[in-house]
Write a structure and sequence with these properties.
five-stranded parallel β-sheet; globular; Rossmann fold; OB fold (Dihydrolipoamide Acetyltransferase, E2P); 425 residues; alpha/beta; 17 strands; pyruvate-formate lyase- activating enzyme; 3 domains; five-stranded mixed β-barrel
């Protein structure tokens, strides 16, 4: 019997990469994807905020109400947190700890008694990433930073990396049709330390030993951007292989708040890395994560953050209102230090969103008139195909036919309703 399944991932690109890998493995076993009425539904959860955890519970209840016969399997950070607390929703058929994720396929196969029916290596291009020729590859897991607001180090465990050899094998196994490889990790700062390898070494190997046209990162920790990394970026810039997009989490532009967060850098150190990237290529798109209303954040310190962002080359913000998480230092800190009110958190988040829209629009306009390579996505909107430029900015390009997975040169013509519009050249 062939089983049908559907999967959903909350949270970070690492979760998405894990989902993509498991999807391919299940398809190899002869399972099929059924979003309507699957035999089992897999949820890869997130616990970075209370909202993320709440969304998981809401999805669980929706599935159980609409699909009473579907088996529900959950994994990820919320699942691990619930196991630690010995408290989780009763409607779950199987819950898998983060530490068992590497064996998740075997656990599911044994529990559901799946049998292999398709030849090894048969792949189905089922995801929005794969349909567009984009391959998510998880290179590292775990963290030892223990930022004061974050549960991840406690739920993901100690840092551990795949070897460059194994990563290269994974990429080559999926190389046919792959136009971009997206390297993801919980904290890329730790990549390779357990094997005597490095992130620049991984990039150099992918450049030298594959023909993948585009290499990018899901997120990169500030301390990953050292002199070796920056020198490599400068040296391979002309090859046009490394996508000029860097998502580098900042969290705050106040040194006191960064210290309370235990981020391990100052705003000056962070700024220095940004300036080198921007000086190397002014069209590099830099985005960041920000926390609005952290414990003890004063109006003055919030203004420091706004001032830092105004002057920085960061053009996109992912904004989170501070959310107390159990077992973190900030959870206990909030009992001693005043936390901004919910209305103040909301107000600060809205101010940051306004600044983000302003800076993003300025960056879009800065790109007008230039010609860039673009990777075309699976989605098509009327007469327009969606694509990603060499700095990962989305663009709509007029085309009579779908161009999914193709790389073409486009000229950037205008900004319309916050979107770039271009034409093939």
């Amino acid at each position: 019997m062939n089983f049908s399944f559907y999967s959903h991932s909350f949270g970070c690109r690492v979760n998405q990469a894990e989902k993509e890998t498991l999807d391919r493995q299940l398809l190899d076993l002869g399972c099929c994807i059924d979003p309507i009425s699957p035999d089992f539904y897999i949820i890869n959860t997130c616990a970075v905020t209370q909202k993320a955890e709440r969304e998981t519970r809401q999805l669980l209840y929706q599935i159980r109400r609409k699909l009473p016969l579907t088996k529900i399997i959950i994994t990820g950070c919320s699942a691990t947190l619930w196991l630690k607390n010995r408290s989780y929703p009763s409607d779950i058929d199987l819950i898998i700890d983060n530490k068992d994720k590497d064996n998740m396929l075997d656990i599911i196969v044994n529990r559901l008694k799946l049998k292999k029916t398709l030849p090894k290596g048969l792949r189905a291009k089922n995801s929005r990433f794969l349909k567009s020729g984009r391959l998510l590859v998880k290179i590292q897991d775990g963290c030892q930073r223990f930022c004061s607001y974050c549960l991840t180090a406690r739920l993901r465990g100690i840092p551990r990396s795949k070897t460059i050899k194994d990563i290269l094998k994974e990429i080559k196994n999926q190389q046919e049709g792959t136009r971009e490889v997206i390297l993801t990790g919980i904290n890329t700062e730790y990549f390779g330390r357990d094997h005597g390898e490095s992130l620049p070494g991984l990039i150099e190997t992918i450049v030298a030993k594959t023909e993948i046209p585009r290499i990018s990162f899901g997120s990169i920790h500030p301390w990953s951007i050292d002199k070796t990394f920056l020198n490599l970026y400068k040296n391979i810039l002309n090859l046009k292989r490394l996508v000029d997009f860097f998502h580098i989490p900042l969290q705050s532009g106040s040194n006191r708040i960064l210290s309370l967060m235990k981020r391990g850098y100052t705003k000056e150190e962070f700024s220095e890395k940004l300036q080198v990237i921007a000086a190397t290529n002014p069209y590099a798109f830099i985005s960041t994560d920000l926390i609005a209303g952290f414990v003890g954040e004063s109006d003055k310190e919030f203004e420091e953050t706004l001032d830092f962002l105004e002057k920085s080359p960061i053009s996109g913000f992912h904004i989170f209102r501070f959310s107390q998480r159990p077992m973190t230092a900030a959870f206990f800190m909030a009992k001693k230090i005043a936390e901004p009110s919910q209305s103040k958190k909301q107000s600060r988040a809205e101010t940051l969103r306004g600044l983000s829209r302003k800076k993003y629009l300025m960056f879009l306009e800065m790109n007008l008139g230039r010609t860039s390579s673009a990777l075309f996505l699976a989605e098509k909107k009327g007469d327009y195909c969606q694509a990603l430029l060499d700095n990962q900015l989305p663009i709509l390009v007029n085309s009579d036919k779908a161009l999914a997975g193709e790389i073409k040169n486009v000229k950037i013509l205008e900004v319309k309703k916050g979107r770039l519009i271009g034409k093939l050249v």
